[in-house]
Amino acid sequence: MNIWQRIFYAGAKLFGPQVANHHGGYSDDIDEAGVVAALVALGAKMAKADGSVSKSEVDAFKRVFQASPENEETIGRFFNLARQSTLGYEKYAKIIYKKFKLNPSILEGVLDGLFHIAMADGIVMNSEIFFLERVADEFGLSSRDFSRVKATHLGRAADDPYLILGIDESVSDFELKSAYRRMAYSSHPDTMMARGLPIELVGLANHKMAMVNKAYSEILSQRSED
User: Fold this and answer.
1) 133 CB contacts (<8 Å, ≥6 apart)?
2) How far is CA 182 from the centre of its chain?
3) Backbone phi, psi, residue 91, to 5°
4) 15: closest CA among 84, 66, 100?
5) Which domain holds residue 135?
6) What is the pTM of this model?
């Protein structure tokens, strides 16, 4: 049984009411396939948070949660199962937190991926922001962490890149480079994989790394113009 088949089976146990009842609910002892299933379910429910699931949101989901071509049909069936409603998304967030609570960079990467899905149709509604805030709470992320991730995607003012890197505008060039190196290291796909992120979700790590690099480049560009 390949990873996506195991994910679909685990996801059916986690999400499907008939299957879950047949198996007596889900166990706290979730294996890797179950964790990935929870991630996929959370992404599907993010797409549903504004009341409907658009093609652009489905495409964004596929960019972040990558399956091999031969398994797209299987994961598509599970996505369609999970996206029927947003009910239960906190449960999936708890499963993901339990797995990655010692690696907050992975949890931020998951939140980044959810923001990417939320923004896919060009409009981020209050219901989606509420969904994202609740997920961040379940992940144990601070309000500052949430604001930084939010700014990565929605932007604020000219200080957005500083917020993304978690630093103030007054930092020296040396402190800027140090902050960038710390963030780049913790966000690098190889680091996140070494800390337990399944390889099928490398899209999360690539997306996070791209945001960090963009923020650093913007700050360097701003400072060179001053």
Assistant:
1) 146
2) 20
3) -60, -45
4) 84
5) 3-225
6) 0.62
Eight-class DSSP state of 28: S
Query: Token digits for 220?
Result: 């360097």
Amino acid at site 123: I
Burial class (CB in 10 A: 0-12, 13-18, 19+), 18: exposed
Tokens of 80: 């369609």
SS3 120: coil
Q: Give per-10-residue mean pLDDT for the chain (226 aa).
A: 47 44 42 74 87 85 72 70 82 88 86 88 88 95 87 64 83 93 89 78 79 90 83
Non-local CB neighbours of 141 within 8 Å, separated by 6+ positions: 104, 107, 108, 111, 149
Give how far Cα 162 sits from Cα of 78, 144, 176, 186, Å. 38, 12, 9, 17
Sequence letter at residue 87: L
Report the alpha-carbon distance of residue 162 to residue 154 in Å, rounded.
Answer: 14
Residues 6+ apart with CB under 8 A from 39: 65, 92, 96, 110, 201
Instruction: Report the number of distinct structural domains present in the chain.
Output: 1
